[in-house]
Automatic annotation (TrEMBL), chain A:
Domain ABC transmembrane type-1 stretches: 30-311
Lineage: Bacteria, Bacillati, Actinomycetota, Actinomycetes, Streptosporangiales
Keywords: ATP-binding, Membrane, Nucleotide-binding, Transmembrane, Transmembrane helix
Residue ranges, annotated region (Disordered): 333-363
Membrane topology, from the record: Multi-pass membrane protein
UniProt cross-references to InterPro entries, sorted A to Z: AAA+_ATPase, ABC1_TM_dom, ABC1_TM_sf, ABC_transporter-like_ATP-bd, ABC_transporter-like_CS, P-loop_NTPase, Type_1_exporter
Protein's name according to its UniProt entry: ABC transporter ATP-binding protein
UniProtKB/TrEMBL annotation, chain B:
TM helices/strands, residue ranges: 32-53, 73-95, 160-183
Record GO terms (molecular function): ATP binding
Keywords: ATP-binding, Membrane, Nucleotide-binding, Transmembrane, Transmembrane helix
Organism from which the protein derives: Nocardiopsis endophytica
Protein name per UniProt: ABC transporter ATP-binding protein
Amino acid sequence: MPNRSRTASPPTLVPLLKGRVRPYAPQITLLLALQLVQALGLLLLPALNADIVDHGVVRGDTGYILRQGGLMLAATLVQVTAAAGAVYLGSKTSMGLGRDLRAALFTRVQGFSAEEFGRFGAPSLITRTTNDVQQIQMLVFMLLTLLVTAPLMGVGGIVMALRQDAALTWVLAAAIPVLVVAVALVISAMTGPSQLMQGRIDEVNRVLREQITGIRVIRAFVRERGEHERFGAANTALTGVARRLGHLQAYFGASAMTVSVLASVAVVALGGPRIVDGDMQAGAMIAFLNYLAQILIAVMMAMSVFVLAPRARVAAGRIKEVLDTEPAITEGAVTGPAAAGPAPRADAPAASPSQDDGPPGRLDLSGVVFSYPGAEEPVLHGVDLAVRPGETTAVIGSTGAGKTTLVKLVARLLTPDEGSVRIDGTDVRDMDRRSLAEAVGLIPQRAHLFSGTIASNLRYGDPGADDERLWQALEIAQAADFVRGLPDGTDTVIGQGGTTVSGGQRQRLAIARALVARPRIYVFDDAFSALDTATDAAVRAALDEHLGDTARLVVAQRVSTIRSADRIVVLDAGRVEAVGTHDELVASSATYAEIVDSQLVPEEAS
Amino acid sequence: MSMQQAPGQRATDFAATGKRLLARLGRERGPLTAVFVLTVSVTGLSTLTPMLLGRATDAFLGFARGEAASLSPAWWILGAVAAMTAVAGVGQVLLGRATTAVTQRAAFRLREDSEAKLARLPLSYFDARPRGEVLSRVTNDIDNLAQTAQGIMTRLLSSMLGLIGAVVMMAVISPLLALVVLATVPVTLWAVRWVGGRAQPHFKRQWAATGNLNGHIEEAFTGHELVTAFGRHAESAQAFHEHNSELYTSAVKAQFVSGLMAPATTFLGNVAYVLVAVVGGLRVASGALTIGEIQAFIQYVMQFNQPVTTLASTAGQIQSAVASAERVFGLLDADEQSADTEDPAQPEEDAGRVVFNGASFRYKEDEPLIEDLSLKVEPGTTVAIVGPTGAGKTTLVNLLLRFYELRSGTITVDGADIAAMTRADLRRRIGMVLQDTWLFGGTIAENIAYGRPEATREEVVAAARAVQADHLIRTLPEGYDTVLDDEGDGLSAGERQLITIARAFLVEPSILVLDEATSSVDTRTEMLVQQGMATLRQGRTSFVIAHRLSTIRDADVILVMEEGRIVEQGSHKELLNAGGAYARLHRAQFAAIAT
């Protein structure tokens, strides 16, 4: 590709697309060839026209005029065919690149751990995979269809002009660089403001987003005026940059037009005397004027690509950021829990029996240390924990104690820096996702349902489950009554994010979903907090009754939820502060006693 | 904000919306007049140029043939064209600036009006639709409009005038040739319609595929934790690849067909060029035209074709912009909340006495929720609102803060009917902590001072200390100057909650509304919070919504809600003795904890 288009590609776009364009190399080559043909077709018209004027008109040769007219028509047909072909290949290439980018992003994000995922957040990742890719796609299309024609027309124009009249060609040879320099100057002047503008748009949108999401708080705190001022400042700042950009565009338009008209004047001023002297013919001069017009049009078209470039550059940067994030968790060797894991650590908690036998449903954490990148302190400092079949192990602790991190380690949404998480003796790092999912059933803090029906959500962990199992799970989760009350029962369609059911109902469906999958180990991550106390108690009673021989890990905030657990682990600042039953801990753990005190009125606590 | 409307959805009433959009632009009378005058003069000058250059050519040719005695007319003409070009260049710069002024001012006002409108809309407007949709109107749609407006306005106006100028000049030079060129116009229009018509179904398929793919991505990403924990990566990826391929296939077709617009119009322009070259050549040969005239004419053909191509390529943009405008106007036209009364009532004191007097309310016409509620809340007392999830506990808060208006009956605060007070005056008396811990993108100190921006740093710190948030805040890297942002500011739900509590504390309200404020703060933090709350509640009337009975046992009045209605009302002891809903809730709680 000629030089000019390289300066046109925003820097971040090059590394993003490098390597990705390779599969498209043949079709891009063909596209460039077609663009060359269509540029030549366009440039041939003034040349043939010159022939009509110089040979046909002057001699009054009607046959010649018609013949050359026929050639012009043929050139036009070839040109339109080549242009259409270029548009087709441009569409295929740009949309193909878009598809590849989306796939690369999706695959990358799927492999993210909870920490990497949290670094971007779901909304941002969604925008990056959808809108940002679309921006790139559009830019690539315009690059291939509009931008590449400009240099071809410029160079081609000079070549064709040389054929007409060498002496006059220097007008073109001077005008084109002047035009190019003018374009380059304006574009480089626009880069800063364009990026600034994107930032200002984001700022305005951020204020608006906050005003909409925080509407109740804003009104309750009577801050409408303050918000209006905040918005006004952002809006004024945006308008200021937009005006600066608009002015720069005005300079571009004016200079392009002035240069090309002055070049036309120069063509006539230099060509006229040459015609008078008989060195050149009138047709050639007309051809020159037309080359100028064609080149100007091509440059103007190319300019429209640059308007898109700053946005695409931002988009490319955002996409690259995701693709450059290496997932910390890679898929382990495909081994089932039966295979031997790495050498088990001997410092497992007191309750940990031998690693390789016993009924299935054993979860052991030993010496688990985990820090979030950049954090000074680890969230978990050497945590030991054991969950046995038929038992409930509860974890309680304050904000930041590391409860949620612990759950994520068990589900392998995070991976420990030191120590191990083992299921039935196998390190989770050596299990594939599928067998880990079969072993561990997670009921997350935020009950998320997928769009589809209640039944499809319940079958998420086990697509083969029959209706009877669904209802059984719904009964245990205390959700059977409200599902029965719905007109379509389990076939009720749930909107995206489960908007058609209330928070408490959603939470119960999430519990039922885990029950349908029948894992060996259940992990409840504060899954009862959205339930009112009566439902909470009923669900727990039903779970005790039906999940007798499975292992349960319950993370909770309410003492009432975990009071009857076989083992309560008190987590404080990432360390296990105490382990025991409720009664033991009330007596022995100051932290636990504090927690109990905060939740009970005095007479009941005693 | 993740899902966006397909750009380029059609406006339902193109003409009306377009007219309204123009009317808004028309408000910028001064710069708009400048735009018009400058466009006419610049276009006029540039329209004359080919004609004059043609004359110059003829002057040279005439001299060469010995028909003219001197070359000086040619030089005069060329000098004049150069001078005109310089003037036109300056004019064009001024024109660009004026255009920018018009469009950017219009965009500024549209944003300003939309934002002001948001403040006047009733809460029911926001509650009735997904927030993303409202957001999309005020951000994506206005962006789309602002971005398109400038480009279109510059090009449209000069294209139209350039077109008219070219037609006039062509007709002056040769009516016959002008007719030949104009004959291609219907063909061009037909081609534009044909391509547009062919592209439409492909675009529809593309939008549908985009919607499906975006929907899948949104689900897979928001449910990332679950997809991973349930080991469903393969299925999710499979579905993704199907949607992705479908989008690719439809997008290639849509892009190709719509991309044909430019080559098609160029082609027709070239056909006109060829016709002019041939017919013009024959006319020159027969002596009806001069060489200079044919030279000028060909330049006019180009000037004529360019606007047609421009119009064709901007048609899609214009449609999308008008569709955006329609959505923005939809927002601007939405019903507003009633204005504050001219002569607002003013409570004579600021004690926090709240009286519900036969208050009734319903969200939907046929579903009565609160019927004839009467309740006297003395200053400094606590009302606890209890009931299962979804029982409508926030309704009372909505009414007290006048987020929603009563259907009948009254609520008075310190003797004044809240409907007769200004909303601002009423709300200044009430401090609120919501379950949804909304914080804006600023420092922690600014967030705490949200209700009282003039508060000093000492007051902010004192408030934080009172609600036990001071220590947590000081452990953050920048302390009170830590900037909160949308994406991962590292604060836990509990920490955010503490900040909102400090925020309510700082405004020193006489009435407090605590909406499930403690439910996401975990036990130990909550213990600290509750101590702060006790301090905060002293001497203030409090409405507390909570699941946990222990936090509301000390309430002076307990309202028990079920299915949106208040089913019981009384003190803890009274309600226990009554053996109703509250007694059942209480048993569930304490049967579990205290054996």
